[in-house]
Design brief:
- With 364 residues, the chain is an alpha/beta fold.
- Helices cover 59% and strands 6% of the residues.
- The chain has 16 helices and five strands.
- It has a five-stranded parallel sheet, with helices on both faces.
């Protein structure tokens, strides 16, 4: 039960100011000041849910933006995220956040392989504030362990989070496994695409764009019970062509082959130092992984988005964006017998060359 007086709502302008204050502390890696600010907000009567979603979540979004713009290193991004995670803990322990569970039981988890746990953590805390009994399982939950937990707890639903699209094939298997034992699934996170397009494609029972919307959806009505005998292949019949399977199985060979050939197609690479060559190999691995995911979903737009996003990341790091074009061409050559893969590589090449006119001659 809430033991404090009713917290007052904060106006949008005030919340923006509070988020800016917290950002300054987080950016300075000043954990003590960050936690103190969060506690002060709660003591002054700002609703716990607003502190979580309108302040901490906003700051975390900015952390990701700073990394993408190369203004935060990976280490800084991790440190900032850790401070935000501890700020969430501070909110959860504050007297104003004490609630009694009056609704059902929800399991909140990240897809196996998904390390970005903060969105799921925020959802878990919001659901607790809304009166749910919540089992928060955290990052990278192996599917067999999740299913075992559901059997033992008889949860009313699973809330599944994923931020990276390459986890969607795994997410599909998790969704299907949960539904097979009669537990409906609501999903969220950037991985599921604009307006949840991939959530629908993968047969989820519900999708929400953010924690507030997820809480409202779960409160408004029970999730529909899953259809019996639902199979993964029912959602994605295009997988019958085996392109996804073959690209996934040969991913390491593809990366090696393209890496070697790239030294002739992109001569500047010959002068790369060891660190630059290692980063190039990593970038190629990410390209192949996203291509495989796009093949799984039959989603040209996903691969096109990834390549244009990668081009922006490279620009921020002082690497010419047109360096991606030879890699796409070499991959198309290696995968010439895979029509969907060639189609996706061509679409991505076209999107890149439309933004890099001088590199048009390198088209697939």
């Amino acid at each position: 039960m809430n033991t404090s007086t009713s917290p007052r709502p904060a106006g949008a302008g005030h919340l923006t100011e509070l988020a800016e204050e917290l950002w300054e502390a987080v950016a300075a890696m000043d954990e003590a000041t960050a936690i103190g600010l969060v506690l002060r907000m709660l003591d002054e009567g700002v609703q716990a849910e607003s502190v979580l979603l309108d302040v901490i979540a906003v700051v975390q979004g900015r952390v990701g933006e700073e990394w993408a713009l190369n203004r935060f290193s990976v280490a800084q991004e991790h440190a900032a995220t850790a401070i935000n995670d501890r700020a969430i803990t501070a909110v959860s322990l504050h007297p104003s956040a004490r609630t009694v569970a009056t609704r059902g039981r929800i399991t909140v988890a990240c897809v196996d392989g998904e390390w970005h746990a903060l969105p799921a953590r925020l959802l878990a805390e919001v659901l607790k504030l809304r009166g749910w009994r919540v089992d928060y399982l955290g990052a990278q939950v192996p599917t067999p362990h999740l299913i075992s937990h559901l059997h033992n707890t008889r949860a009313d639903a699973v809330a599944l989070s994923s931020s990276i699209a390459t986890r969607l094939p795994t997410a599909h298997a998790v969704i299907t496994a949960c539904q097979a034992i009669g537990v409906p699934v609501i999903v969220g996170g950037a991985a599921f695409g604009p307006e949840g397009r991939y959530a629908k494609l993968l047969g989820t029972d519900a999708w929400a764009p953010d924690a507030r919307a997820a809480a409202e959806r779960l409160i408004s009505s029970p999730l529909p019970l899953p259809l019996p005998d639902h199979q993964q292949f029912d959602d994605l019949p295009h997988l019958a062509d085996q392109e996804y399977t073959m690209v996934t199985r040969t991913a390491a060979r593809l990366v090696r082959t393209v890496f070697v050939a790239l030294q002739d197609s992109f001569p500047a690479m010959r002068d790369y130092n060891d660190a630059q060559r290692e980063r190039t190999a990593e970038d190629l691995a990410h390209i192949v992984e996203f291509l495989a995911t796009a093949l799984y979903l039959d989603g040209d737009e996903l691969f096109t988005w990834f390549t244009t996003w990668t081009a922006e990341i490279l620009r921020a790091r002082g690497v010419p964006a047109h360096s991606l074009l030879p890699a796409l061409g070499l991959l198309a050559r290696e995968l010439k017998d895979f029509p969907r893969a060639v189609r996706m590589l061509g679409a991505a090449n076209h999107a890149l060359t439309s933004h890099i006119p001088t590199a048009a001659g390198n088209a697939v």
